[in-house]
Task: structure prediction
Amino acid sequence: MDPLLDWSNIIALVARYLHVVCATLLVGGTLFYEMVVPVAIADLKPEIQLAVFGRARWMFRQIVWWSAALIIITGLVSGFRHHVIYTQAGEPAEHSEFGAAFYETSGSPVPAARPGWWVVAHAAVGLLAVVISVLLTIGSSPPGHPIRWMRLNLVILMIVIFLGSATRQVRLNFEEQIPPSQWPMYFPSTQDSP
Result:
């Protein structure tokens, strides 16, 4: 086996792991900062509340910035790894397991069965969530209505998670439909396979 393919598989695995961990940190951090901290400090004096919020925001900023950078990098790695599937020109044969519900009368997949559409939605909405997260942590003081922005971002992050899961599922469904004769085009590592 080609050593380069071994390294690419390891890099893809690590990238996927980091992508999921960083997304979890953003969602968990947002949830904690938006729901737990205000309740925990509700009985404190206002000046102490501001000090606690300031410290929590400083720590959350580091988590957000590192997570945002790693999410973008690992998303690009994953996108590059699967770019042939996402940008494919040909249409694989229909798989009997999925039936006609995934195909238009012309024989091409319905838009919901195209992995490229899902990855674009996941990336676009994910980038929006990352930008909101970063904007909430830039500067020496929080923007106006930070809790509302965090709640909105939490909803957006949940949508991003759904879109990421849907992207993976549709891509796997698409890959299952590819006949072995087309494998070298979609999976270069099978080039030498019988």
User: Anything to note?
Assistant: The chain is about 70% helix and 0% strand.
